[in-house]
Amino acid sequence: MDQTTNTVTNIYNWAREDYKEWPTRFILEITAWVMSLGCSLVLAAGATDPLFIWLYPIFITQCAIFGWAAWTRKSTGMVANYILLVTIDIVGYVRLISTL
What is the reported pTM? Predict the structure, then answer.
């Protein structure tokens, strides 16, 4: 096998094992990833007037899911990162809705 095929096979096998270990976590992480991509695309498309009233709750939800997944993997750095992101986004959302 060439290097690219080997890498893709390794990633596939790792994802399959991750799913077998904890299917709910795997599905939630993929869901949070899709949410994150969706928010980024909406933000990029509406950069002059982003829809933060709708995006902030999705950002908060996907960060909380990623934080939980990081917690179950015992990843201290990622847990700390997502706690900080959730906190920042909650503060930003509260500030946003208080101006409406």
Answer: 0.75
Half-sphere exposure of 85 (CA within 13 A, CB side): 20
Residue type, position 75, single letter: S
pLDDT tens, residue by residue, 22-33: 999 999 999 999
Q: Position 28: which residue type?
A: L
Q: How far is the C-alpha of 10 from the C-alpha of 27, rounded, in Å?
A: 19
The two structure tokens encoding residue 78 = 């990622």
Asked whether the beta carbons of 26 and 56 are under 8 A apart, the reply is no
Q: Which amino acid is at 58?
A: I
Show me where the domains of the chain are located. 23-98
78 touches 67 (CB < 8 A): yes
Report the run of H or E that residue 65 belongs to, with start and end.
Answer: helix 52-72
Query: Cβ contacts of residue 72 below 8 Å, gap of 6+?
Result: 22, 25
DSSP 49: S
